[in-house]
Amino acid sequence: MAHQWSDQDGRSYPLTVPAGMNDGTGGTVRAYLLNRAKPHLPPWLGWAGTGLAGTLGHWQWGESAAAGVGLTLASVALTGATWWAGKSTSNQRRLHAAITTAAGTAWVTAACLAGPTAGPIDDLFLMGGPAVALSWNVRMVMRHNPDGSTASSDGGLLEKVGLARAQIGAAKVEPNRVTAPIALQPGEQTNDDVTKALMKIASALDLPTSAVRYTPDPDSVRRGELVIVPEDMLSEEVQWEGPSNLGGSIAEPLVIGRYDDGSALVMWLPGDPDVGRNSTHGLIAGQSGSGKGDAALNLLTEVLSRRDVIVWFSDPKAFQDFAPLRPGLDWAAEGGSQTEVLVAAVEAVIPARTRWLGAHGYRQWVPAAAEQQNDPEHSCRPDSRACGCEGMPFLVAWFEEAANTLRNLGDDAFTGIAQEARSAGVSLIVSLQRPSYDQMSTSTRASLPSVIALGCDARDEGFALPETVIDAGAHPGAWGNRRPGYCYVVSPGIDEARYSSPGRTRRFTTRAVPVMEQLAAWVQHNGATADPVTVGAAAAVAGRAYTGRTTEETGAGSRPVALHAVQEEDDMEHGGLLVDPEDADIDPEAELPETEDGDDSPIFGQEAGRKPSPEEARRLFAQALAEFEDAGQMVVGPKDFTDWCDRHGLSRSWVSLRLKEAAQDGRLDATNTTGRWRIVPALTAA
């Protein structure tokens, strides 16, 4: 058996090889030594070649002055070319190569002109040449990889994921966050290649998909920053304990949770002309069980805790999650006809508020607009003196479970509001599970620049987040409803690099209910109230349906009961006559009255009912509309008159004709729903 021996790398070699396997080098040991020496020979061959070039050059040009000039220029040019060619390598290697070239060409020039043995030229060759050659040998030995390839600072990670030859710069290390700049190969790779490789990078690092993000450089198609968050700091649930800035301005940041690196998750609703931030509308989207209700509560409690904002809120679920906060709302609607009126009122206040802001010199709503107008620069008076007008608070129009509203009013119910409200100091918030195009019009979705995207079906990611954010590594579909509260937030004022960073909202438990009730009480005593312009425009459309926020001291703003409220059993009077009070004076023995003009004769297949005279009809119908208006029910249709028709002995077909006539007279206004009419308040109609 052949003897074995090992080299310094632990590899074993036989002392002899079978016949026919010898490569002609005279033995395996010598072949191995020669193979190991080959990578180190080029510097020494260069040293020997330099000496030969100097000797031959002196024999050819030793007495030529022109050759001296040419050799000097060639030396400079060769050194510059070496520096230029090394721009794709490291700075250390580039400088080493340039110094070596400059030293070698300078010695050749001196040897050609003066002779290789003149003065110290031969000593420089014999001492300096080996030193330079050995410096390259040392450089090669110091490499981590013995095969001579350049070591990568990323440990070969980029090569594994298909991004070979991409360069990664010095990483910025923060607590639980690593940010590294990447420069891709020119002409061969783009930022799209990195976004496609994010899942492979996460796999190589054994991290979840959401832990690896890429932010492209907006000024380059091949540069960007790779962000890696090794530890998920969102796994620990944080409960809501109260608002972050009670009594502050709505223009200040609204804190709704935290990012995965522990920093605050914030957003803004009003714009700020000083920093160039636009006012915004918001979308809260997430499938059932993803924590959408808690996300909404985080944002709503932050809004209500500010001193210069009012909230109009629609919730078809009868405020199941928001009941403790209801006393702090300036207008609370429970869906259906109430929401129809609220939508119409928001549409009506937009031009009125815009007109007021323009008259007072505001191009957009700012906190100063909510204060009394004592500044001459914001005066509506023609003489430029301070007008002293009452301020206008910011208005948030919130539509919870908006899919219900969109089904009733049409998919473009919010389009006009979304496109026009920002300049009026109005922010629209729409909350629904799936903001797909079959529920919400594309125009409305395009006008909602801010989004809180919670867990969703993987196929719905494009409905909630912009494509660029998904390409950067944001994937709410990876959570579904398994991680309640996890979200991505895209909104003006947030660094775009943060768009693809996951955050988590705070959790609302039963312990939060008393704090929410205290917040609602604080709003009643210290919160803003609607300004006269907003009140006037809303009342002109909603009439008594808009009453403003309730107060404990005066009870002002309490909403009237419904037109046909059902009495509880405890309210019934027990005992006494078992007849209706209106029938108490009827003599059961008296003859029935004769038939009057206008009475119907029941005919089989036709609806029975009395047909009053035109004058009586107008009086009765006007009375009915007044009853609805007094009760605050401002949207009506034929089915709402069922009990009223029975009470007056009238047919529903007669009511349908009267509705159309009232619309022609301006007492009713058509809605987006066929067969439904909005009552124009009597004062406005007049």
TrEMBL record:
GO MF annotations, alphabetized? ATP binding; DNA binding
Ranges for the FtsK domain? 262-463
Record's keyword terms, sorted? ATP-binding, Nucleotide-binding
Concerning InterPro entries, the annotation shows:
FtsK/SpoIIIE/SftA, FtsK_dom, P-loop_NTPase
Q: Which residues form a coiled coil?
A: none
Q: Which of this chain's residues are annotated to bind ATP?
A: 286-293
Q: Where are the transmembrane segments?
A: none
Q: Where is the composition biased (Acidic residues)?
A: 580-600
Q: Where is this region: Disordered?
A: 576-615
Q: What is this protein called?
A: Sporulation protein SsgA
What organism is recorded for this protein? Streptomyces griseorubiginosus
